[in-house]
Specification:
Elements lengths: L2 H20 L5 H34 L2 H15 L1 H10 L2 H31 L7 H29 L2 H28 L5 H28 L1
Length: 222
């Protein structure tokens, strides 16, 4: 074999070796971490925008049902932080235990919403700007439905019980937000007391979500 051919083969070998190193497979844990962070960040952005829009409308309407939904949606958005940190750490154990933080946040939001609802029940005051109140409820439905879609798809793809549970939670929250629309309708029909009552119903639904999420997360941490 000629010296030129030998050099060509050597260069080919070095090129192949370089290609193998530069175009090789990425560590699956890194890929999973990136996808998890991306899904969590997107759901955080969706729920953050939802909470901001609902907060602006709450100032105008003073609806306790909307406040209950707003508190819960804001708390739900914050649950993305421990879950996102777990994905960044690339730790399945941290990911599982971050689910406990999610459950505690949901429970805390339910307690705060209940306090405001009882206070409003004792001193009822009809909310104002009812069309805006109905729009706020619709925003909650859409925002939670989108967040649920993002979390559930990513959770199944990444085999993440915490993300799947959070997706189911957001899907239930979409139904909870319908209560705000119902409040606007009942108050418009002349029943202002419906607003704090619906707020208590929303609180009860949040507690049910908390219980279901607890069972999902507890099974994942065993």
């Amino acid at each position: 074999m000629s010296h030129t051919a030998t050099c060509d083969l050597d260069r080919g070998h070095r090129h192949t070796s370089t290609d193998e190193h530069s175009h090789g497979l990425v560590d699956p844990t890194i890929t999973r971490s990136r996808e998890g962070v991306r899904a969590v960040s997107l759901s955080l952005a969706i729920l953050g925008i939802t909470a901001v829009l609902q907060g602006a409308i709450y100032v105008a309407t003073d609806s306790i049902a909307l406040l209950a939904d707003l508190i819960h949606n804001a708390g739900d958005a914050l649950t993305a932080l421990p879950l996102g940190a777990a994905f960044l750490l690339r730790s399945r154990r941290a990911e599982r235990y971050s689910g406990l933080a999610v459950v505690l946040t949901i429970f805390a939001s339910a307690c705060v919403a209940a306090i405001f609802a009882v206070e409003k029940l004792i001193s009822p005051l009809a909310p104002e700007h009812l069309p805006a109140l109905g729009i706020a409820g619709a925003i909650g439905v859409i925002g939670n439905a989108l967040a649920a879609l993002v979390r559930t798809r990513a959770g199944k793809r990444l085999d993440s019980p915490a993300l799947i549970a959070d997706g189911a939670h957001a899907r239930s929250d979409a139904i909870v937000s319908m209560g705000v629309v119902a409040s606007a309708i009942f108050v418009a029909l002349g029943a202002p007391i419906a607003d704090p009552i619906i707020a208590l119903i929303i609180t009860a639904m949040i507690l049910k979500i908390t219980w279901e999420s607890w069972h999902t997360v507890r099974g994942a941490t065993r």
